[in-house]
Amino acid sequence: MYNIEIVCFIDLQGLDSGQSALGRVAESTYNIDRGDRHRLHSVAGTEDRDGISCLLQSSIPIYLTDVNWPLLTISKGFFECAISNQTKNQMITALVTDDQPSANAGWGNEDDIVVCDNTPIDDGHCGRADTERNSLGWDVEDIELPVDIKLDETIHSQRRCVTVPAKGTSKICSWISNSQFILDHLSAGSYAAAFTSLNGQVGVINFDPYKSIFMSVYACSKLSLTLSLLLPPSCTYPTRSSGEDRDNRGLPAFTMQLSDLVKRLHSGYQLTTSGQFPEAVRRFQEILLHIPLLIVNSKQDLAEAHQLINICRNYILALKMETERKENLKLTTVDHKRICEMVAYFTHCDLQPIHQILTLRTAVSTLFKMKNYKTARSFARRLLDLGPRPEVAQQFRKVLQACENNPTDEDVLDYDEKNPFTLCGITFRPIYKGEPEAKCPLCTASYQIQYKNSLCNICQVSEIDKPCGGLKISSQIR
Ligand SMILES: [Zn+2]
To answer: pTM for the whole thing?
Structure first.
């Protein structure tokens, strides 16, 4: 502290705060009288009246190790006392105190043994006697050991060393090492392993749609608890087993299950029924992306997961094709033949009965308007077989009667209802049985062979016809 600050402190106490007594104590403590204060003020100001201004420096603090800091009262051991308070000779004196038994008194009884020159000598006792005579009381002697005895260095070194406990495995690391499921790796934040598994199992090459899913699963894998406002929140990791199931011990709790995807499927159905095709397509694609992350425990759940893939694929394909057909209708030069073919294909997408009726109604109406009565008659029969509402059935019986009166087609359509076919997911054209095709390893959508190694248009994440290991989502197959 500079002296000038002390003067200011004294002035403040005396003038501003009214603590004149404290100011006087400070004056006497720092030996500052009024003359010094005036001089110090001169130093602090811009004037140098006496020409004696100089930099005032505080005294050098002296650090005394023994008295400066209070120390805890601890009991010193024998060697600590001896080293700190006594010299080497005093230590020797401390070792040999009066209350300790005398070496001669305790160990010198053998001095009374008289050994005669003619007596057969016991090597041990005779040698000890000679040593005792030479050392006056101590019978310390060298021990003759066999030459082949060696000191066990390992035991010797182990006694000297401190064994540091081995570092344990964190909960998250154990998830990665104990599980091969993608969901567990995501819960641990091991995105690289999850990406590798997705690519190896179902040929995923476009990971952008998976970003939000990965972040959501990782965020759900742990709980944050605020125990006190003064402490940072602590994290806990919910597990899916308390310990009896050895295979699942310590693994993260399920953040997503098959039943959750089934609920999303029903919402996709509702969007389809209400005609919100783009929203429905997004919903079915979300379900498709989540299926490789599932962990199912039974063959029935595994079969339902595969069935879910087929349902989502069919709906995405049907709704995308119908969306494209409606876009074609907006064009100035409408391709009537193509429109008729697309509505015909739309009826073969294996949708739910309620949606299948809607596709057939669309097909019959479109084909009848475009004078393709023969094909419209076939769809009208299929529609009536599904048992629509009475008023709908009555209307389409009349349409069927009109088509049967003139069973001809205006256009030659690329459509053979008697020949099984699948639809290409990009061109929306039929691939009849026996023709070469490529398949998506995730959604199993079919494509014409020229689209091999392209990005799937249905799931939009996998590479078409990429050789893969297949879904590994069953806990019964490890
Ligand atoms: Zn696909």
So the answer is: 0.64
